[in-house]
Amino acid sequence: MTAQQNALELTQAIRKAQSAPLFDPRFASLEKSTFAQSASATSGLTYYDLEAGAKLLYPVLTPLRNSIPRVSGRGGVQAAWRAITAINSTGLRIGVSGGNRGAVQADTTKDFVATYKGIGIETNVDFEAQYAGQNFDDIRALAAQTGLEALMIGEEAMILGGNTSLALGATATPTLAASTSGGSLAAGTWSVICVALTLDGLMNSSVATGVQASISRTNADSSVDTFGGGAAQKSASATVATTGSTGSVTASVAVKSGAFGYAWYWGAAGSETLGAITTINSVAIAAAATGTQTAASLPSADWSANSLAFDGLLTQALLPGAGSLVTAQPTGSAGVGTPLTGDGAGGIVEIENVLKANWDLYRLSPDEVWVSSQEANNISKKILAGGGSGAQRFIFDSEQDAIGGGVMVTTYKNKYSLAGAKSLDIKIHPNMPAGTMLFLTRRLPYPLANVGNVIQVRARQDYYQIEWPLRARRYEYGVYADEVLQHYFPPSMSVITNIGNG
Fold it and tell me: 484, 490, 488: which is closest to 164 by C-alpha?
């Protein structure tokens, strides 16, 4: 028998043995494993493969806070400054007759004040949480870190739209129109109530959770602060009748300066329920409201201003007498609004109007415009749609082996500048509401203006952390600052609001 035949027979014998299990009772105990892999990660003799260190998976996006200079205050209860806002404000002619003196010019001055506000937030760590976190992460350090980051996120929103000075007052009574189609409203009389919202009110409201009006907050030391949650006084109700079973209603109100959102309540008179929150001054109502908050539960008062906040950029631009250019898009078709308008030459009509007015009125050329993701998308579409005139140019590298889809417009050419065309940076802000655009000029082109920073945070006390004395088996931390936002020349800001999507 050859070696090859022996190997073949051995292989066949092994296969035969493997196909015939042993039934000898002496081997019965081997039929089951003593230990098997558990189906659960937390039971059995199974190693728990947990990576040390908590993963901090949340955004800390604070572009304005990061870019605005911070300076030290000098005590007192407010920052105050005076400015000369116009020279020869009466327009005296400068020609003089022989041997005589000229006329005396008149200058315009203005006083500004900004009251310091304290900001802060607290965290705590139980002793047991500290014990349990050993060999995993430093829980106390995480508490301090997350507290600081939460404070910065809140500060960013306040820098953009904090409101302590601009009370919205009463929301206008809605104007209604009914249709026999376009929805699923049953026949009957529908009552609609609207509540205008500040940026703070808009950010902290939803159809599911409702609108916050008067807020009473219990603090870590058991004190209670009461302040406005950003809701204006609710409107009077308006009614309209629908017929059939496929009815719909459109509603609109007069634009409210300082409002960046509108909450809509509808239903039977006296039982109006929150059904929509829009960033334009109108809504299309096609079905019964799905929220749970009723308009009757809101106080009959204006709670739009927050006495614990300082005025942010948007509020400072919108204050009466600020001199900022503020425009609101027309109501347009209710529920749709009026979108930005392409000019057919690679530009946007509304942006062009703002840039031209800044130059004509103040000889200013804005540096940046802050927008929401909605407006960033719409600006890109409008500009690209107007590209038939050859206003755009695309350059392809000869070594490029693929072309990626999607085009984003990140700058806008401002033709109104003494130095020629200037780039206006288009920037997305995480807290900018849809339907609003904020134009900023970071540098004033005025000689010897005595203004180092057009915008700055003046901190009477910058960020500090307190580890409070123990009063329970719990470590308690507070992160605080005391500051105010200064804008030396509000006319250098411009705002477009009530922009429809499209």
Answer: 484
Read off the pLDDT band of 33 (50, 70, 90).
low
Q: Are 195 and 268 in contact (CB under 8 A)?
A: no
Domains of the chain as residue ranges with CATH? 63-88+106-162+310-390+407-497 (3.30.2400.10), 175-297 (no CATH)
What is the token pair recorded at 97?
């007759």
Distance CA 264, CA 254 (A): 14
Candidates 313, 257, 309, 353; CA nearest to 442 is 313
Q: Measured between alpha carbons, how far is 416 from 356 in angstroms, rounded to an integer?
A: 6
- The CA-based dihedral angle spanning residues 133, 138, 139, 144, taken in that order and rounded to the nearest 10 degrees: 180
Number of CB atoms found within 10 A of residue 349's CB:
12
Residue 333: count other Cβ atoms within 10 Å of its Cβ: 13
Question: Structure tokens of 180?
Answer: 């026999």
Say yes or no to pLDDT of 5 above 80. no
Q: Which residues of 52-61 are buried (b: 16+ CB within 10 A; e: fewer)?
A: eeeeeeeeee
Lowest mean pLDDT among 80-94, 96-110, 209-223, 240-254: 80-94
